[in-house]
Every structure is written in structure tokens, then in C-alpha cells.
Amino acid sequence: MYLSAIIGERWYKCKYMFYFLHGTDTHKARRKLHQFLDLAEKKRPLAELFKITTENWSEGQFDELLVSRGLFEQKYTVVLDNLFERKEIKDYILERMENVATSEQIFLMLEGKVDGPTLKNIEKFSKQVEEFAKSENIKHSVFNIFSITEGLVRKDKKHLWISYVDLLSKGAPAEEIHGILFWQVKNMILASKGGNQKETRLSPFVYKNALTGARKYRTE
């Protein structure tokens, strides 16, 4: 089924939306994720995007996104990126799958290989589950692409370059890495100009991280 047929008007009008993408071919899964995001942005251009990884995970933020409608009932699109790498996060999310499914926000979840019982549990609450399998004879390295922002925030050029080369060697698309860096720079600019976290409309963790980075680049 074509993605446009899956999403289209039916997705736009649907109140509860949770989509689960998983499998060993993380490149294809991530490309599909970005297709979902592009279409979601066209349908809801004012929706705020939250990307949650193991690096910026917060139980409080996650729970808030499940119930929050945002200012003037603004909608959110929430990306959960390979959170099952940490068992405690996985357990926390699985215990709240019904809340995710019935949230008014769009939740897009991306994972690698998922065990049978976990997948069965997720399927009960997902609008759509799609698997991307990779041939077993092809080696694959799991990576967290958001790790590239650490060197940028710390103004550590050596760490930034090493992270960049490492991600490229593991198969991360250069354009995706550039997009993550642009996203972090944009957040740093917002944090430096905003009076406080609420004014920037960034999540508390993202705001704190961005503000730390912004202070590193301030000029006299």
C-alpha cells in the first residue's frame, strides 16, 4: 500500500494515531519515518515536532506529551527513536501503550529488531505496524544519530568530527546528519533569544541542552 494512501486524508482526520516502524534494515525504516514526517508536516504545518532518544529521554516529558494539547490546542508529532535499547525505557513505554494509542498526538516509533511478545503487544495498540527486514548476510551497526549533537553543544570540534566520521562509517546518510545538526543549531538560537523555556516552546531537556550549547558560542 502506498504511503499516501495510508496517511492522506484518513490520517489527517483520524484522532488517535500511533505508527510503529521496526526491523533490522534501519536505513529503510528511517527513510519511511521521514516520509511520514514530511506528509505530517504538509497536513499539519503548525504541529510541533518532538524527537525523543535514549539521550534526551525523560519520563516526565513523555507523560506530558501523552496528555498535553499544547498552546491553543496545538498538535504535536512525537518521534520515539530506538528507545527500546534501554530496558527500563522499554518497560515504561509498554506499560503506557494504551495511553499512546489514545493520545491526541501523532506518535511515530522507530525500533530495530523486536521480540515476538513485544511486537504482539504493540500491534494491539498501533494503527499500523511495518517491518523492514535486512538480509542476514549483510552486517549492520545500530547507531544513535543524535549523538552527533554532543560535540556541537560542547563546542568540541574533535569530538564532533569523530562522531561525524563514525556515523558515516556506520551508514548514516550525510543529509540526515546535517539535518540533525541544523535542528540543534536552531534550538540553540531559540534558547539564546528566548526569555525562558516556555517561551521557546522547547521541551525542558532540549531547552537546557540547547541553552548550554548557546552559551558556549556567545561572543563578547
Brief rundown of the structure:
With 220 residues, the protein is α/β, with parallel strands linked by helices. Helix content is 52%, strand content 12%.
Within CATH, the superfamily of the largest domain carries the name P-loop containing nucleotide triphosphate hydrolases
Distance between the termini: 56 Å
> What is the 3D shape?
globular
What is the CATH architecture descriptor of the largest domain? 3-Layer(aba) Sandwich
Largest sheet composition: 5 strands, parallel
Structural class call reads alpha/beta
What's the helix-strand series? HHEHEHEHHEHEHHHHH
Rounded mean pLDDT score: 82
DSSP strand (E) fraction? 5-15%
Gyration radius from CA atoms, angstroms:
18 Å
Strand order of the largest sheet: 2-3-4-1-5
**Total domains:** 2
Count of DSSP helices? 12
Task: Give keywords.
single chain; globular; 2 domains; alpha/beta; Rossmann fold; five-stranded parallel β-sheet; 52% helix; disordered N terminus; 220 residues
Write the layout of secondary structure elements.
Blueprint (H helix, E strand, L loop, with lengths): L2 H4 L1 H6 L3 E6 L3 H18 L4 E5 L6 H9 L8 E6 L5 H8 L2 H5 L4 E5 L5 H8 L4 E4 L16 H6 L3 H13 L4 H20 L3 H4 L3 H13 L4
Parallel strand pairs: 1-4, 1-5, 2-3, 3-4
Helix pairs in contact: 10-12
Walkthrough of the structure:
This protein is an alpha/beta fold. The chain folds into 2 domains: about 1-135, 3-Layer(aba) Sandwich (Rossmann fold), CATH 3.40.50.300; about 145-215, no CATH class. Helix content is about 50%, strand content about 10%. It has 12 helices and 5 strands. The chain has helices spanning about 5, 10-15, 25-45, 60-65, 85-95, 95-100, 115-125, 150-155, 155-170, 175-195, 195-200, 205-215, and strands spanning about 15-20, 50, 75-80, 105-110, 130. It has a 5-stranded parallel beta sheet with strand order 2-3-4-1-5, covered by helices on one side. Strand 2 (about 50), helix 4 and strand 3 (about 75-80) form a beta-alpha-beta unit. Helix 10 (about 175-195) crosses helix 12 (about 205-215). The longest helix is centred in the last third of the chain and has 20 residues, at about 175-195. The radius of gyration is 18 Å and the shape is globular. The protein starts with a helix and ends with a helix. Mean pLDDT is about 80; it is low at about 1-15 and about 135-140.
